[in-house]
Design a protein that fits this description.
It contains 16 helices and eleven strands. The chain is of the alpha/beta class and 438 residues long. A hairpin with a 2-residue loop joins strand 10 and strand 11. It folds into three domains: 207 residues, Rossmann fold (3-Layer(aba) Sandwich); 155 residues, Phosphofructokinase domain (Rossmann fold); 41 residues, no CATH class.
Length: 438
């Protein structure tokens, strides 16, 4: 922990800088507004830095703006970011990180507020670590993925708005599915965790939701298709319903072996500056639609699946009241951290701010890094907790009792039969048993 601790003396530069990294999330502008108004009321100048770390890495001091009241008044209602954002990574090269610190020094910034997810938090931790006490850094957790390790299951800001907007979209698509008698495969954004997909699927009552956390090891596309096919057969045979909505977490792709993805025609695997797979370049919804439709075509019982991706529609949406209130507290708290108004906070060169039981807390960056990878820890869905177990209770997907109940198994086997070849109950059980064993 010593590497992130500094003497109690304050930085010699007293300007406060603020930047945004990673993808957009509802509430960014509310943080900028709250921090600016509070800092200025305490006689501190606030320097808005455009495009994340992008220009700082180049030693550029021109892509900044001193923020005043008129710049931030009422912007908390707006989605997006008035300072823009980028995924520029200052930690890939030592010289880039040194250039960032030198540029902040040139701008007389002794306090830096970073708004972002796990990658931006890691970059922030490295700035704090290498600045030698000259710059105190406060990271404000922003991501619709909800995957930063905040205590007490506190959401990252932007998540609740994204879930609400996603819920509304899926609600409409569920009605379209029922009206037209078609299935929808909806892939929801979320790189490493299934929080958003599960939150949307559970709230909307989607037919089923599939998230990466339910798999113990690698995720195979054939297995995902088995889950989807089983759900379609079950809904059709036991409920006489030809419609349904499957919500699928985008993060499944992170767990699919590279050779499987490469084998798909037209797929090109690329990575971002932090080394992450560019999930948006891989249309998982279309891949699953194509594979599942082919299975039903092969048995002479074609179905129509509509594929849809939800993510970009949510990221820059206007924040709901929850996030508007939440981010005001976080922006105020960042100023409190910088000025050392919280016990023990003045001992930290950098920390993540969070709200626990209604109280502000500041978590040392060092405690948030994975000791194995050295990168930021990720919060995933705990499938052993009641929230996930309850969600599963309301999903339609193959369960153990379906394969153990002779009548249900017989009906399912009949649904899986083709015009040219019947499927016996034993064959059906052998085909899908692996889903339950896993």
């Amino acid at each position: 922990m010593a590497q992130n601790t500094q003497p109690s003396s304050k930085p010699s530069n007293n300007h406060i800088g603020i930047l945004v990294g990673g993808g957009p999330a509802p509430g960014i502008n509310g943080v900028i507004s709250a921090l600016t108004l509070e800092a200025r009321s305490r006689a501190h100048r606030v320097i808005g830095i455009y495009d994340g770390f992008q220009w700082l890495m180049r030693g550029d001091t021109k892509h900044v703006k001193e923020m005043d009241h008129d710049d931030v008044s009422r912007i908390h209602f707006q989605g997006g970011s008035i300072l823009n954002t980028s995924r520029a990574n200052p930690t890939k090269k030592t010289e880039d990180l040194q250039k960032v610190i030198a540029t902040l020094d040139a701008l007389k910034i002794g306090y830096l507020a970073t708004i972002g997810g796990d990658d931006t938090m890691f970059a922030a931790s490295q700035v704090a670590k290498h600045a030698g006490g000259r710059i105190r850094v406060c990271h404000i957790p922003k991501t619709i993925d909800n995957d930063l390790p905040l205590p007490g299951e506190i959401p990252t800001f932007g998540f609740e708005t994204a879930r609400q907007r996603g819920f509304e979209l899926v609600q409409n698509l569920m009605e379209d599915s029922r009206t037209t008698g078609r299935w929808y495969f909806i892939v929801v954004m979320g790189r490493s965790a299934g929080h958003l997909a599960l939150g949307i699927g559970k709230a909307s009552g989607a037919t089923l939701t599939i998230i990466p956390e339910e798999f113990r090891g690698p995720v195979h596309l054939e297995t995902v298709c088995d889950i989807l096919e089983g759900a379609i057969l079950k809904r059709k045979s036991l409920w006489s319903r030809a419609d349904g909505v499957a919500v699928v977490a985008e993060g499944l792709l992170e767990r699919v072996p590279a050779e499987e993805l490469s084998a798909i025609e037209g797929v090109r695997i690329t990575h971002d500056s932090y080394g992450h797979l560019r999930l948006a370049e891989l249309d998982l919804a279309y891949i699953l639609k194509t594979l599942v439709e082919h299975r039903f075509d092969a048995r002479g019982a074609p179905i129509t699946v509509v594929h849809k991706n939800i993510g970009y529609e949510l990221r820059s949406a206007p924040p709901i009241a929850f996030d508007c209130e939440y981010v005001r507290t976080l922006g105020y708290g960042a100023v409190e951290f910088f000025l050392g108004h919280y016990q023990d906070a003045e001992k930290l060169a950098g920390a993540l701010i969070c709200l626990v039981d209604g109280k502000l807390q500041f978590l040392d960056f060092v405690d948030l890094l994975d000791p194995k990878t050295g990168k930021s820890q990720i919060r995933v869905v705990d499938v052993n907790k009641p929230s996930y177990k309850i969600a599963r209770e309301y999903m339609i997907r193959l369960e153990r009792e379906d394969l153990e109940d002779k009548d249900k198994l017989r009906v399912l086997a009949e649904a899986a039969s083709s015009h040219s070849k019947s499927c016996s109950p034993d064959e059906f059980r052998a085909r899908f048993q692996h889903l339950l064993d896993a």
